[in-house]
Amino acid sequence: MAEKEERVKLLGFWASPFTCRVEMALKLKGVPYEYLEQDIVNKSPLLLQLNPVHKKVPVLVHKGKPILESNLILEYIDQTWTNNPIFPQDPYKKATARFLAKFVDEQLAPVGFRSLVKAEKGIEVAIKEAQELIMFLEKEVTGKDFFGGEKIGFLDMVIGTMIPYCGVRAWEFMGIDMIPEEKFPELNRWIKNLNEVEIVRECVPPREEHIEHLKRNAKRIKSAYKRQT
Ligand SMILES: N[C@@H](CCC(=O)N[C@@H](CS)C(=O)NCC(=O)O)C(=O)O
C-alpha cells in the first residue's frame, strides 16, 4: 500500500506544452511515473477531483497528493528529487528564471498565438508585438548554450515547450517566419542545442499531429472571435 502511494502519476494531455515540460523534468531526474492521458474537453472525474479549481492538466500526484500548475510542479520535482538540479541555486537567478517563465506563459504565449490568430490590428502589427517580446529572450540566452547555462534547466523546459515545439509549429502553418536567424541568431542557436537533447526529443508532441491540433485550435479561436465582433 505504502509503495503504491509513493508511485508518481501524471495526468496530462499529449499536445500540452505544460504537460510536456513536466515529463521532461521527470525524465531528466529519472523518476518513474505512470502517465494518464486526459480528455481536456470531457474531463474525467479524477481530473475534476484532483484539480477542482482550474480543472486543467498537468496534475502530478505524489504520495497520493496532487500538485498543480506546471511551473510549480517543476519546483516540486526539483526539491523532491535533488539529482540533476533544474533551478539555479542563486536566489537572484532563481527569481529571474521564475519571472521569465511567467512572462513566457502569461504574456508572450497569448500575444504569439491568440492575438496573432485574431490579428485585431492586422497581422504585421501582431508579428511586431510578438517579436518585441521574443527579443527579451534573445538577450537572455546570448552567449549561453542553454537558458540554464551549460545544461538544460527549468527555463529551457518552459520556453522550449512554448516556443520551438509549439509557437514555431503554429507560425509555420500560418506562413510566418517569427524568429528569423538574422534577427534572432542566439535563439536559433539555442533551438539547435535543444534539439540535440534526448529527453527533449522524447517528450515533444509528434510534429504532424501537433500541427493539425494547433490548426484546429486556431480555427476555434478565429470563429469565436468572429462571433463576438
Ligand atoms: N497555467 C497552467 C496551464 C495549464 C493548461 O492550460 N492546460 C490546458 C491544456 S494545455 C488544459 O488543461 N485545458 C483545459 C481547459 O482549459 O479547460 C499550467 O501551467 O499548468
From TrEMBL:
SUPFAM superfamilies: GST C-terminal domain-like, Thioredoxin-like. It catalyses: RX + glutathione = an S-substituted glutathione + a halide anion + H(+). Its EC number is 2.5.1.18. It is found in: Cytoplasm, Cytosol. The keyword Cytoplasm applies. One of its GO terms (cellular component) is cytosol. Residues 90-221 form the GST C-terminal domain. One of its GO terms (biological process) is toxin catabolic process. It comes from the Eukaryota. The keyword Transferase applies. It is an enzyme of class 2 (transferase). One of its GO terms (molecular function) is glutathione transferase activity. Residues 6-85 form the GST N-terminal domain. Keywords: Cytoplasm, Detoxification, Transferase. PROSITE patterns: GST_CTER, GST_NTER. Belongs to the GST superfamily. Tau family. Is involved in the conjugation of reduced glutathione to a wide number of exogenous and endogenous hydrophobic electrophiles. This is Glutathione S-transferase.
